[in-house]
Amino acid sequence: MDGLSIAHDEDLLKDLECPVCKQYMVPPIQLCMNGHNICSKCRGRVQCCPTCRAKFLETRNVALENIARRQKYPCDNRRRGCLDLFTVEHINEHNAVCVYGKIKCPFKLNENCPWNSFKSDLKEHVKEAHTDCFTERSKFSSDLFGDVLTIVSCFGELFVYYKRRQDGRLYCAVQLIGTSSEASKYKCEFTLRATNGVEQIGKTLFVRSYIENFDTNFNSRKCLYLDEVEVRNFIVENRLHLTVTLSTV
Ligand SMILES: [Zn+2]
Ligand SMILES: [Zn+2]
Ligand SMILES: [Zn+2]
Ligand SMILES: [Zn+2]
């Protein structure tokens, strides 16, 4: 690309930014009476146009929507070295988990960990600060009959393993700290064994992406879920013989 078309592209990208949230607008893009654009998320939150205070129309900017669909967008961390370009469907998802970007420690909720830094430093942080909740094995046992959060480092990636007891059920899920297309390259196998070595429950699922809401995963059952009554048959001396195995698809 020559200098002129790069400059032109930058202008176009500016036009595709929502005036409120500053994110790139994804169709549907809506219009005010004077022709200013707004993204659909922000449209629901404001009474009038943030640019000129005029009313919004029920009209969409179809031409801009078509341009938005064809445009490739740079990552938020371009200045830090992420030079990839993404389509409008993927840019926001990528920004959330970009290796050049900052990420909050997964233990923020459970243990109030304030760590918020680059994804490339997360492994070292977890190793040091949450040693008991870190493993480098792709196959590990999870015998505690209670809530668990473990960071798994394997295949050159970081995964988050969750186990939760809630509403008489046991839920387990694995998420990759990466996008959903990267996550779909991995699967997780859960095997629950009785001490007699004969009875077992097994389930294999796709690894989910860390950007997906964890509770949504549970509610939509994109995870392992078992009735506690059923699980009790597999508990011996308060221990659950559950093995988790991560592998590539
Ligand atoms: Zn917006
Ligand atoms: Zn306006
Ligand atoms: Zn990036
Ligand atoms: Zn932490």
Write the SSE topology.
Blueprint: H1 3-15, E1 29-32, E2 37-39, H2 40-43, E3 56-60, H3 62-70, E4 73-74, E5 85-86, H4 88-97, E6 102-104, H5 108-111, E7 116-118, H6 122-129, E8 134-135, E9 139-141, E10 148-154, E11 157-166, E12 169-176, H7 180-183, E13 186-193, E14 200-206, E15 208-209, H8 214-219, E16 224-227, H9 228-232, E17 235-236, E18 239-240, E19 242-248
Parallel strand pairs: 8-10, 12-15
Antiparallel strand pairs: 1-2, 1-3, 4-5, 6-7, 9-19, 10-11, 11-12, 12-16, 13-14, 13-19, 17-18
Bound molecules: zinc ion (4 copies).
One zinc ion binds next to α2.
How confident overall, as mean pLDDT? 88
Along the chain, the helix and strand elements come as HEEHEHEEHEHEHEEEEEHEEEHEHEEE
Rg on CA atoms, Å: 23 Å
- How would you describe the shape? elongated
N-to-C span: 38 Å
In percent terms, what proportion of residues is strand?
A: 25-35%
Annotation field: number of helices: 9
Q: Into which percent range does the helicity of residues fall?
A: 25-40%
